[in-house]
Amino acid sequence: MTDISRKKVVLGVTGGVAAYKAAELVRRLGEANIEVHVVMTQAACGFITPATMQALSGNPVYTDMWDARIANSMAHIELSRDKAAIVIAPATADFMAKLVHGLADDLLSTLCLARDCPLLVAPAMNRQMWEHPATQRNVKKLAEDGVTILGPASGDQACGEIGQGRMLEAQDIADAVAAFLAPKSLSGVRVLMTAGPTFEAIDAVRGITNRSSGKMGYAIARAAIGAGAKVTLVSGPTSQQLPVGATVTPVQSAAEMFDAVKRNAKNADIFIGVAAVADYRVDKPREHKIKKTEKTALTLKLVPNPDILAWVAAQPKPPFTVGFAAESQHLETYADEKRRRKKVQLIVANLAQAAIGADDNEVMLLDDSGTRKLMRAPKEMVAKDIVAHIATLYHSAKKRR
C-alpha cells in the first residue's frame, strides 16, 4: 500500500449548531491518517465541550489566547507552525466576516491571521444568512484571498427551514481535506470515468441490472480528485454519496452512459471504465407494465449493448484508457485477454464474488509490464494505489509520445 506521511491539521470549531458534526469530523480525519489539533471559540464551547473534542482527537484542545501550556505563551503563533492546514468547520457567518477583515480578537481568529499554512472553511448557517449580500461578498473575497471554501450543502436546517447553508457532512469534509493534502500526481489532468451499474428497462417498472454498488468507482473518483485531477463522473444508479469536486452526470441505461462518454471523451486525458455495464438490453422494452398471467411464459429478446471501453480505446487519438474486469474464475487469464483484445493500457481485475457490495477489495493490475497484485484492503485505500499506478503509467506514456 502507498505509504502516506501522517499530516497534522488544526480544526477550528466556531459557534454554530453544526459544531456537533465536528466530533465526527475528527474521527473521519483520523481514519484518513490525519492528526487533528482542535481550537475552539468560546461560542463553540456552548455547543460541544472541549473534553469531547480532546477525547476524540487524542490531543489537547485550545480555547484561550493565553494558554499556559504553550511554553512561550504564543499559541496564536505556535499552533499552526507544523500543520499542513487549518480547517474551520463549522465556519459561521460572523467568523467568515472576521477572516475577510483580518480581525483577531480571540485565539482562532488570531491563529488564522498569523498562519503560514493553507486555510479551508466549511460554512454553516441559516439560508437567509448564507444568501445575504454581505455573506456572499465575504465568500467571494475569501476565495480571492486563496481560502478554500468547502460547501455549503442544501437541505434541512436546525431552524426548520430548507435551503443552502447547511454544513457538508463530516465524511465529505474529511474527503476534501484528504484530497487537498494528497500528492498531486494528476494535477490538471482531465479524467473521465464511469461507475456503478446500468439499468436496462423491461417495461415501465422492471429492468435488468446487476449487483454493483458503485463503491469502487466512487472511491477511485475521490482518489483521482485527491491526486489533483479534474474528474467527470458518468454514474449509473447508485446510493453512493457524490464525490465532492467531481462533475457528475447521472444515467440509467448503457445507451445513456455511452452517449455521455461520447460527449466527453474528446476532452479527456484519461478514461477509467469502472462501471458494471450490462452486456445486454431488451430489444423492445414495453411502455407499460407487463401483466402477469399464470399459464403464460414470458420471453424476452436480448440484444448486445455497445462496448464503451472498446469504443474509447479505438478512437483515432484515444485518452489513456483503463478498464475493469470482474470475473468469477480464471481471473488473470480472462483479464489479460480482455486487455489485449480491447487494446487498453491497463486492466484492473477482481473476483466479482469477493468484491461486489463489499467495503474492501483485492485486485490485480495488468499492463504491458506484467501483473501486479494489491493486497485486500478497504476500497478507499485500494483506489489510491490504483490511481497512483495510473498516474505513473500515464506520465510514462506521455513522455514517449
List the helices and strands and how they pair.
Blueprint: E1 7-13, H1 19-31, E2 34-40, H2 50-57, H3 75-78, E3 85-91, H4 93-101, H5 107-113, E4 119-123, H6 127-131, H7 133-144, E5 148-149, E6 153-156, E7 162-166, H8 170-181, E8 190-195, E9 200-201, E10 207-208, H9 215-226, E11 230-235, E12 247-250, H10 254-264, E13 270-273, E14 280-282, E15 302-304, H11 308-313, E16 320-327, H12 331-342, E17 346-351, H13 352-355, E18 360-367, E19 370-378, H14 379-400
Parallel strand pairs: 1-2, 1-3, 3-4, 4-5, 8-11, 8-13, 11-12, 13-16, 16-17
Antiparallel strand pairs: 6-7, 9-10, 14-15, 17-18, 18-19
Notes on the structure:
The structure is a single chain. With 401 residues, this protein is an alpha/beta fold. It folds into two domains: 7-181, Rossmann fold; 190-283 and 297-400, 3-Layer(aba) Sandwich (Rossmann fold). Helix content is 34%, strand content 24%. The strands form five sheets. It has an eight-stranded mixed beta sheet, with helices on both faces. A five-stranded parallel beta sheet has the order 2-1-3-4-5, sandwiched between helices. A two-stranded antiparallel sheet has the order 6-7. The two termini are 30 Å apart. The mean pLDDT is 91.
